[in-house]
Amino acid sequence: ADFAPSISVSVDLQRRCRQVSEMYFGNWKSYPQFFCRAPGRVNLIGEHVDYMGFSVLPMALANDVIVAVGLDDVQSQQPSVAVINLEPRYPSAEFRIGEVSGTNWHDYVACGVKGAMEDLHLTSFPTNMRMAFSGNIPCAAGLSSSSALVCAAALAFYKAHEIHSGTSVPSRLHVASMCCKAERYIGTMGGGMDQAASLLSQSGSALHIEFTPTLAAELVPLPPGAVFVVANSLADSFKAECGNPFNHRVAECRLACILIRRALHPSGSGLSGAGSPCRSELTLAAVLSDFGLNESQLVAKIGKEAETVGAGDDVDSSEGPSRSELLPSLVTGEEAAKLLGTDLAGLRDMVGVVSLATTMTTAGVYYRVLRHVFVPVHYSYRIVAFLSCQIGWPNLQSSTELRPLARARHVLTEAERVSRFREICNLHDDKALVELGRLMDESHASCSGDYDCSCPELDDLVSICRKAGALGARLTGAGWGGCAVALVPELLIDRFIEDVSAGYYRRHVSHGEDAAYPAPIFVSRPAAGAGY
């Protein structure tokens, strides 16, 4: 079977399942019918490149989300999902199947359920569902705790549908692709790495994930002696919250794609419509493919041709983009619009990134209106998704600063590092660990500089990891907080953890001077993907 049983492989997992089963019984006076689990992930290299069409190289964590699931015997006209969590800070909730209303923890559950229901082309579900969750993935740490929730909830719904209809759960690749789309209902325009890593990983290997032309994954053996340590900076990273720059970066990259295309093809040849790229063309991977370039060639081209369009400069778009405008280093929203011969509203529509607050409010209104006039649930989902994407990028203002050159340079050079990392892992060279560490160091410098997705705490933690003996260290996950991952020689692990705990956590954790406390740092080994 594509989804082999995975609950019984760990004594600790069995203990946690018993614990969440008891919570389920205590709340609903019955026992769950089945369990699902989905792990978090740590990305070894390849940050902020998946949504630009490039490959990534993560591995699944042993840390995971498990869910105990049961179905009502009572038929329901408006089926709902009731959720509880073993962790008290996550309050219980109930929501109608097919609705996502905000960014609370249970809305990630709602995303998974909604995505699976739409994928199955269901207009209704015969019963209510009950789900009891337990997780040990650090929250807001860049380890994909939210995506694990989405994946676990989606698997739960697929399994529930299998029980009712006899229809088998789809393949792992299919579910991973669906979960990527489903999580966008929460407002984060990710590229699919987190869901693919959670669903496609196998114990003992990292995973090289490709997104073009279709989702594909290859197991990558790690070199002997390679041990990765995950260290939490304790600075929270909430990429789905309003004001977080994650979607801003997506938009800057899409702007870079449009500007590069127009500079390389001033006439608009090869572009959809009147010289305006369609959504599938707004990745740098598509740009390379369409113009027959590789990453190094495009990096050299944008580095040579780019110049800053300063505030107040007169940009005459009627003559078409000049070579010097291939990619500006710095441009305001108003100036970017002029470069493209449009206004702010047109620019928002072109880059197509959705503000979470506007999306959730408007999508909720769309859905309620459509259901009020009896549009079937399945078509309501599709119409809501389409209309929400037309909202544009409401946070873009005339004075908003955009840096397409630096963002594109990071994506292209990071894509090269992923390819090199994979090659080294497969070569089994004696100097493999040193070279992998160098690539990780370069990746962090690019994330911190060109992509500006680090923070003082992460930069400090990465520096301390290197001083403590790491061969390389970098932020992992979206950034702006969360975790760092360090490559450490196996013989130095205990000393490394002690030195990082002393050098970082004693300054960043509020405890008594002599109090003993567990540092949020742990050794990470490649774990198995999601299952039942």
Features:
single chain, 532 residues, alpha+beta, 5-stranded mixed β-sheet, 4-stranded antiparallel β-sheet, 16 helices, 13 strands, 42% helix
In brief:
The protein has 532 residues and is α+β, with helices and mostly antiparallel strands. The protein has 16 helices and 13 strands.
Q: Can you characterise this structure?
A:
There is one protein chain. The chain has 532 residues and is of the alpha+beta class. It has 16 helices and 13 strands. It has helices at residues 11-28, 105-119, 145-165, 172-183, 193-200, 246-264, 284-291, 295-305, 333-339, 344-351, 356-372, 377-389, 404-427, 432-448, 456-467, 493-508; strands at 34-45, 57-75, 80-85, 93-96, 127-135, 206-210, 216-220, 226-232, 331-332, 401-402, 472-476, 483-489, 521-524. The strands form four sheets. It has a five-stranded mixed β-sheet with strand order 1-2-5-3-4. Strands 11-12-8-13 form a four-stranded antiparallel β-sheet. The radius of gyration is 24 Å and the shape is globular. The model is unreliable at 269-275, 306-325, 354-394 and 511-518 (pLDDT under 50).
Annotate the secondary structure layout.
Layout: H1 11-28, E1 34-45, E2 57-75, E3 80-85, E4 93-96, H2 105-119, E5 127-135, H3 145-165, H4 172-183, H5 193-200, E6 206-210, E7 216-220, E8 226-232, H6 246-264, H7 284-291, H8 295-305, E9 331-332, H9 333-339, H10 344-351, H11 356-372, H12 377-389, E10 401-402, H13 404-427, H14 432-448, H15 456-467, E11 472-476, E12 483-489, H16 493-508, E13 521-524
Parallel strand pairs: 3-5
Antiparallel strand pairs: 1-2, 2-5, 3-4, 6-7, 8-12, 8-13, 9-10, 11-12
